[in-house]
Amino acid sequence: MNWDLALEILGFCVGLLYLWYEYHASWRMWIVSVIMPAISMWIYLRKGLYADFGINIYYLIIAVYGYIAWRRGKLGKKKGEGRPITHIPLRFYPVAVVAVAALWFAMGWALDTQTDSTVPWYDAFTTAMSIVGMWLLARKYVEQWIAWIIVDAVCVWLYAYKGIYFYSALYAIYTVIACFGYRKWLRLSA
């Protein structure tokens, strides 16, 4: 049996479940988001996608933060009401752009000069965007979907190029659903 392919298919299925919960703004996605990185780390390491491997450690940590943030809600609200879907405050836009640029440059340089990665700058870009995107998601900002549309579209090509075809297909689905998710969250936003 090809264990890499079996894990890729399992990751594909878990990824669809995660996307279902995210689309519906369900706190359950944070539970699934602990399983998905564990599967993905193995695949990314074997394919030389080192930044994608590393970000999955971050995903595990942010999953705990996101779960707490979503379940606790905002200060002053009753426990159990949860955090509402809102828009990113304008003051965070420049911070997010600078964070993506700095992370992209630092990781791209490190991957280009310190590893055997064949796609260091693409790997670094999707990772930098994902770090910021996960923080936006944990804060339940509508604009997190824009980050995911960009990341997912790049990952379709990146994973196909690296021969991770189920993940490439998964990210094609993610791209389409992210467009719908953005529209849905706009309607649900406070």
SSE inventory with pairings:
Elements: H1 3-23, H2 29-46, H3 50-72, H4 92-114, H5 120-138, H6 144-161, H7 165-188
If you had to describe this structure to a student in words, what would you say it looks like?
It is a single chain. With about 190 residues, the protein is an all-alpha fold. The protein has one domain. About 75% of the residues lie in helices and about 0% in strands. It contains seven helices and no strands. The protein has helices spanning about 5-25, 30-45, 50-70, 90-115, 120-140, 145-160, 165-190. The longest helix is centred in the C-terminal third of the chain and has 24 residues, at about 165-190. The chain starts with a helix and ends with a helix. About 40% of the residues are buried. The mean pLDDT is about 90.
